[in-house]
Amino acid sequence: MVMTDSIGPASEIISNRREKPIFFSPKVLAGSSRTLPPGYIHLGVAKEIAPILSEFNVDSVPLIREAGLDPALFDDGTNVIPHAALGRLLSLCVTRTNCNHFGLLVGMSASILSLGMVGRLMQHSETLGDALRALVSNLCIQNRGSVPSLTVSDDVAIFTFSVYQSEAESADQISDGSLAVAVNAMRSLCGPEWHPLEVLLPRMCPKDQEPYRRHFRAPVRFNQESASIVFPVRDLKLRIPGADPMMRAMLEERIQQMKGAQGSEFSDDIRRLLRMRLTSNHCSADEIAHLLAIHRRTLSRRLKDSGMGYRAITNEIRFEIARQLLTDTQVPLAQIAAALGYSEASAFTRAFRRWSGQTPKHWRDNGLRSDLATA
């Protein structure tokens, strides 16, 4: 699967650089010892939610139940939950603790081993670049609600994490936590002093930015189009101390076995591809078919068999990205329109009205009023 993303105008460091996408196999891999359905995740990092709640003197059990989950699931990070339930739970946690960076705290508390078998494969990869490519290629055995990517732009590398499930709550909290644990993983591989050049977050600027600066130890830019870690491209060649080639081969073989047992939903594969390519305007049906090494007619037939059309899925993902940016950031409407491939803001407004029955401005205003009422 090709996993690429374009940061666009979000960062001064990378705004004028020519990006070179890094390519991966289009095959979606399976979950632990069983098939991980689309829209589900292994608890992994989310297992840290209960301990963080206890630090706020909040009982996690009723909150987990209110999110529609069994508290006993949180005893084992390999248990599987719906991605949507994680979003609901994080929303409840933010409200109950009155901590707007709760997701960041969860990610800060997690380690590379929270990524399960993928984390172990990263530990035994030869270089940081190999480890990140392993993460991008294989995170779907842990998480079928979000998708990572890695791109190179001249002398910088950009690791990006995106939520692609529709109706996802707390995408900003999920992004915060995902980048926080990604930095933890990179420090475990490169040394505790490692730090990025900058971090981009698709969320409104919080009143208290210190927790972000303290953890990332780099400039943090809010109100961005993507959740990204920017670091020198030379770091991709850093060798990982203690990597065991034999263990790496065993882990890769195990993942291949899981891949063979996986029954993937084709439309979900397309969603994952589109979530990372829509903002770079490289997402035509012909291009997606080429990436999957199938004919354009085969793409249409397989989507039709799954009850979806290519245009419908594309609009679904565009709507999802637009909702996240309108709700969680103050990115100007014209910039959102351009990121989604619209030549004019008016065309984006018409499309958004078709999807939601509201204009983007009304959607954003209603969301802000709702947040103020909750506060």
Question: What do you see in this structure?
Answer:
The chain has 375 residues and is an alpha+beta fold. It has 2 domains: 8-250, no CATH class; 266-374, Arc Repressor Mutant, subunit A (Orthogonal Bundle), CATH 1.10.10. Helices cover 49% and strands 10% of the residues. The protein has helices at residues 49-55, 60-66, 83-97, 102-109, 116-123, 128-138, 171-190, 210-216, 245-261, 266-277, 285-291, 296-305, 310-328, 333-339, 345-356, 360-374, and strands spanning 19-21, 40-42, 80-82, 146-153, 156-163, 198-200, 220-221, 227-232. The strands form 2 sheets. It has a 6-stranded mixed beta sheet with strand order 1-4-5-8-6-7. Strands 2-3 form a two-stranded antiparallel sheet. A hairpin with a 2-residue loop joins strand 4 and strand 5 (156-163). Helix 4 runs parallel beside helix 7 and helix 13 (310-328) crosses helix 16.
What's the gist of this structure?
This protein is α+β, with helices and mostly antiparallel strands and 375 residues long. The protein contains 16 helices and eight strands. The chain has two domains: 243 residues, no CATH class; 109 residues, Arc Repressor Mutant, subunit A (Orthogonal Bundle), CATH 1.10.10.
